[in-house]
Write a sequence for this structure.
């Protein structure tokens, strides 16, 4: 399955030396646009075999400590996302790597007990992910934490 909507041009140089503005991904017209097809990802998470989710160490820690979530909660959260919750895309490095990855960012209020969006629950959950792997066959979670907490 193809998950990429479009392929942005990676920045030149070390991402760690770029400003927040330079890490933002925009299309040729300067408009923020999702790199990854959210609908295709959601369908693949419900397919057998399901799309594999891989977590950064920091995402696992914040999921466990701050959110009290497990993999099933993350799958429910991603399943409830809509394009209206898209907050932009950014360049990131995966841990132990120096290849820039285009990651989409979403933010949404969520009830993990009911498995549904709930705008009244605050803080909202900040999620940053990309599709990685030689065959672009794994969903990599860079960040998953309460919005405003890093």
């Amino acid at each position: 399955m193809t998950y990429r909507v479009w392929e942005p041009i990676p920045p030149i140089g070390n991402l760690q030396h770029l400003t927040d503005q330079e890490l933002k991904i925009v299309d040729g017209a300067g408009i923020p646009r999702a790199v990854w097809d959210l609908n295709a990802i959601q369908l693949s998470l419900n397919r057998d075999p399901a799309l594999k989710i891989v977590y950064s160490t920091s995402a696992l820690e914040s999921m466990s400590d701050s959110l009290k979530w497990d993999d099933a909660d993350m799958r429910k959260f991603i399943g409830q996302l809509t394009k209206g919750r898209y907050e932009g895309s950014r360049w990131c490095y995966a841990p132990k790597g120096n290849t820039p990855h285009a990651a989409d960012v979403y933010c949404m209020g969520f009830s993990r007990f009911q498995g549904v969006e709930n705008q009244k629950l605050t803080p909202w959950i900040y999620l940053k992910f990309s599709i990685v792997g030689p065959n672009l066959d794994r969903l990599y979670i860079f960040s998953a934490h309460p919005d405003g907490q890093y």
In short: The longest strand covers residues 100-108. The two ends are 32 Å apart (CA to CA). Helices lie at 20-23, 38-45, 57-67, 71-80.
